[in-house]
Amino acid sequence: MSTLLEEIKTYKDQFKKKAPEEKQRLMAQATQELEESGVAQGLKKGDQIPDFTLPDATGKQVSIKNLLSEGPVILTFYRGGWCPYCNLELKAYQNKLSEIEAAGATLVAISPEIPDASLNTKEKNNLEFTVLSDVGNKVADQFNLVFNMPDYLIEIYKDSGLDVAGHNGNDDWELPKPATFVVDSSGTILFAEVDADYTYRTPPEKVIEFVKNI
């Protein structure tokens, strides 16, 4: 079975062959500008996470405090089920779910999508772990992950038929940077990886190895 990073590389290679050069240039420019802006750097190792409760894909309220009482939690923030890189990531984590649970951790994925959209993402990818809806990016903002999409990128997305704001139930066109954290039962971040490049994702193997050594 190919790894997440291998699948991402395959998808990127296909995208480069199909997408117009100007579209590729502008999308790369947006990533570079986000990197250089210094915004949304994310919480760091050693930081305490905020106490939060969010609805899962069925609308049930899930408390992070309750999850942490059972052991370490892997939190992965993703952009939405419309994002092909997010779907590759979620499927890769699903494939490793038994190993994550065997290591004693709970996996939770969070996006700004409304619960109905999260449910669609969960069903589409046959996800058996908790998927939470952070409408308005309130929790992602507390993790210092939220940025505003530039106008030219919004136009590219609209031209591609992607109504990000609609998925999120608002019109703000804000997104979280993809990020992965490992949090211990006291709410302290032990591992943090945040990247301005939305095509990069933390491989599940890396997180599992880390959890095993806690």
From TrEMBL:
<comment type="similarity">
    <text>Belongs to the peroxiredoxin family. BCP/PrxQ subfamily.</text>
</comment>
<keyword id="KW-1015">Disulfide bond</keyword>
<dbReference type="InterPro" id="IPR000866">
    <property type="entry name" value="AhpC/TSA"/>
</dbReference>
<keyword id="KW-0049">Antioxidant</keyword>
<dbReference type="InterPro" id="IPR036249">
    <property type="entry name" value="Thioredoxin-like_sf"/>
</dbReference>
<keyword id="KW-0560">Oxidoreductase</keyword>
<keyword id="KW-0676">Redox-active center</keyword>
<dbReference type="InterPro" id="IPR013766">
    <property type="entry name" value="Thioredoxin_domain"/>
</dbReference>
<comment type="function">
    <text>Thiol-specific peroxidase that catalyzes the reduction of hydrogen peroxide and organic hydroperoxides to water and alcohols, respectively. Plays a role in cell protection against oxidative stress by detoxifying peroxides and as sensor of hydrogen peroxide-mediated signaling events.</text>
</comment>
<dbReference type="InterPro" id="IPR050924">
    <property type="entry name" value="Peroxiredoxin_BCP/PrxQ"/>
</dbReference>
<feature type="domain" description="Thioredoxin">
    <location>
        <begin position="43"/>
        <end position="214"/>
    </location>
</feature>
<protein>
    <recommendedName>
        <fullName>thioredoxin-dependent peroxiredoxin</fullName>
        <ecNumber>1.11.1.24</ecNumber>
    </recommendedName>
</protein>
<keyword id="KW-0575">Peroxidase</keyword>
<dbReference type="Pfam" id="PF00578">
    <property type="entry name" value="AhpC-TSA"/>
</dbReference>
